[in-house]
Amino acid sequence: MLSVKNIHQYYGGSHILRDVSLEARLGKVTVLLGRNGVGKTTLLKSLMGLVPIKSGSIELDGKPIHKATPYERARAGIGFVPQGREIFSRLTVEENLRMGLAYKSAGTPIPAELFELFPVLRQMINRRGGDLSGGQQQQLAIARALAPRPKLLILDEPTEGIQPSIIKDIGRVIRMLADRGDMAIILCEQYYDFAQELADDYLVMERGEVIARGLGKDMEAQGVRQLVAI
Ligand SMILES: Nc1ncnc2c1ncn2[C@@H]1O[C@H](COP(=O)(O)OP(=O)(O)O)[C@@H](O)[C@H]1O
Ligand SMILES: [Mg+2]
Question: Which domain, by its residues, includes 154?
């Protein structure tokens, strides 16, 4: 679904992403691991077009997208759940979900399925985003990204600062979405156990480079836990 080849990215003079390549397969969860500051968020933002890359290529479904704007990439089928959630705190849950449909034709309904995945959002539909708990906001951010039915869903540290019961719910939703087979998922995580449970494929980054990769089932044997231990 997604094929990234040899990308390099700089913030000013600092070389942040160094020759990063990755594939995200349809129906699979690709987990991206690495300690703080290694470039995970920068990589995900560059996939979404939120930071420019200097060289390399990004293909979605066989089509190059690395010159496309974030808006065009969203239209092409990428859903992005940013680190820290970035929901609109003054808007209601319903309005936040509508923002996820902003580039669809006017009047596109909010898919009812989102409320089956996250029933709490139905109860909270008229509440402001800012009045939700951190976990509920994360569920809202995921639902907002799912609203236009993306082919590729990118999640940047969805468990950060969230209570365990909601982490479990989010994990179940991620697995279920992948198992339906019509979406590729890239999950960036620092919470190793959560990442390992969901990983079909994994990548480990260090200082802007991919230093290890493989199948999720081999993560433990290949010592990934130690590689990312703080
Ligand atoms: N907007 C920015 N301008 C300059 N440097 C940045 C910016 N954002 C991140 N960085 C730097 O890029 C590196 C990678 O950051 P980031 O991608 O956020 O890492 P991670 O998500 O793995 O914690 C860090 O050294 C960070 O300080
Ligand atoms: Mg980050």
Answer: 2-228
State the Cα angle at 88 between 103 and 113, rounded to 5°.
60
User: Cα(155)–Cα(158) distance, rounded to whole angstroms?
Assistant: 6
- Compute CA 72 distance to the chain's CA centroid, rounded to the nearest angstrom: 17
What are the mean pLDDT values of the chain's consecutive 10-residue runs (230 residues total)? 97 96 98 96 98 96 95 96 95 96 86 96 97 96 97 97 94 97 96 96 97 96 90
Instruction: Report d(CA 6, CA 22) in Å as an integer.
Output: 9
40 C-alpha to center of ligand 2: Å?
5
Q: CB of 138 closer than 6 A to ligand 1?
A: no
Q: Between helices 164-179 and 134-146, what is the axis angle to 10°?
A: 10
How many independent structural domains does the chain possess? 1
Cα of 38 vs centre of ligand 1, distance in Å, is: 7
Residues with CB under 5 A from ligand 2 (ion): 40-41, 83
Hey, what's the torsion of the CAs at 136, 112, 125, 119, to 10 degrees?
-40
**Do residues 87 and 161 touch, judged by C-beta distance below 8 A?**
no
Pocket test for ligand 1, best of 16, 160, 189 (most atoms within 8 A of CB): 16
Domain harbouring 79, CATH code: 3.40.50.300
For ligand 1, atom 3, which residue shows the shortest CA distance?
11
Q: pLDDT tens for residues 146-177? A: 999 999 999 999 999 999 999 999 999 999 99
